[in-house]
Amino acid sequence: MKKRQMYMRMVTASLLRRRSRMVIALLAIAIGATILSGLVTIYVDVPRQLSQQFRSYGANMIITSSGEGFTQEDVDKAVSLIPKDQLVGVTPYRYDTVRINDRPVMAAAMSMEEAQKTSPFWSVEGRWPSAEKEIMVGESVAETYNLKEGKRVTCTYAPEADKTDKKKESKQEEEDIVPDNFIDFTVTGILSTGGKEEDYVYMGLKDMENLTGSPTVFDICELSVSAESKQLSSYADSITGKSDMMSARLVKRVTESETKVFSKLQSLVLLVTIIVLALTMISVATTMTAVVAERRMEIGLRKALGASNQSIVAEFMGEGLVLGAVGGAVGAVFGFLFAQAVSVNVFNSSITFMPWLLPLTIIASVIVTGIACLLPIRSATDIDPALVLKGE
Amino acid sequence: MSLLELKNVSKIYGNLHALDHINLKVEKGEWLAIMGPSGSGKSTTMNIIGALDKASEGEVLLDGVDIAKKSARELTNIRRDKIGLIFQQFHLVSYLTAVENVMLAQYYHSVPDEKEAMEALERVGLADRAKHYPSQLSGGEQQRVCVARALINYPEIILADEPTGNLDEANEEIVVELFRKLHEEGTTLVVVTHNPEVAEVAQRTVVLRNGKIDHESINENFTGRIKHITLQ
To answer: How many domains does chain B contain in total?
Structure first.
């Protein structure tokens, strides 16, 4: 039999045949590794989860036109710079002034489906428009014109609306005025956001084209991207850099909130991880101290038989490291389950298993256990065989 | 040259002289018994001969080498290579089987050899109990495992500290018989005991009192291998 085989036999025999004490040490390591593995999983996966959650606060990037607006083709080109899996929603808007009861109101035209993705926080009493000649009005507009869900409202569009308010200067001019376009809309919903969005009316792009008689040219485009602020900035820079007509910028109140929450969460996880590691170390060190104390006689015997201090260290460290590895493996599995439970309960979505976390947890557990074993093992080498074998 | 020689050896703890200028020689192949009342210095002598403790004064020559001047690491090597120890409380590792306990001494000495360890157990009549744990063995059997462990590395000298102190009469006889067999094979034995029956089967008996050699005697009826031992 080789020495290494005998070494393994002694280490495993000590662990397996002295279960009660070792189970306590193993439990301490496994609990520590579970929390460590769980927190690292949360640390890595939660920014992704939170990023998706933050999308409910609306767009975090806005593309504006540096010239006379942009087309759907321009939007598609710009959006192609962002990976599809990170793109939650893209809503280009066209704005124009329409008139209701001869008073000007700002109208926004967009794809209703996309708008629901980029502005999920919008609260609509009724429903979003889903067909032509359907309109959604902001709460403020609804109050002004006494509009309710199901009511009809006529929107007119004067091609040269700025002139219609001025006093007509001549009869000839009066004759030259192009008649106003108008569409009778049905109000499908009243929008409340608590913000300036309540001052607008919202219609489909086709209705706006019919009303204005001109093809769609967008003024701005809202994007909801599931990415961290640094990544977002780089996307914005690439969009701005690639196009002369478009300029992308971040919605600071959203991205800054995200960054703050992430950094606070990361600090919290780091702090808890350090505390857990310290507690695990204390727990393992205490257990190993007890193990050394109760095996003083055995250590004395081994020394009497000719065991060097290095042999004693190797044997006890071997036991500690095996415990660390087993505890780490158990902890990695339970840590995933722990993180999964947190994710499902808090974020309503499951997390993906990260295979690299298994060796990482085992290595971390082995290192922590190794450090925790140092002092108790040091005390083991100080044992005087002559004293302990006499029973002192 | 004697295998073991103590020259003016003293062990002092504070004001207490546990050993006071002891002079003692043990020849190769000799069977020596050390007797004395409690506190006479038997265990201290045993620890110093067994390289478990250092003398405060004097020389302890084992195979011509003064081990009194050696470092702790060197003493460990001496214990491993030259000495076989047997204790009153057996001191077997509880979670290792009988054969594994024997192999433990091989492990620290050179290379564990299960076959050789089994042969050692066979010599003490325990081959059929090799896979039993200490808790499954009787006191006598445990002590026989200790004997097998002590002799597995062919030490220069076997030191036994009260080897029958925890045994009943039947097991005491078995262990003494084992010693007799080992001595026949040429093993040097030093047995510390307060049991006159165990001492009287040895070749020579040294009696300690108050840290000094009180007297010594030769067993005239000794029938073992080396018969010509003289009083020192």
So the answer is: 1
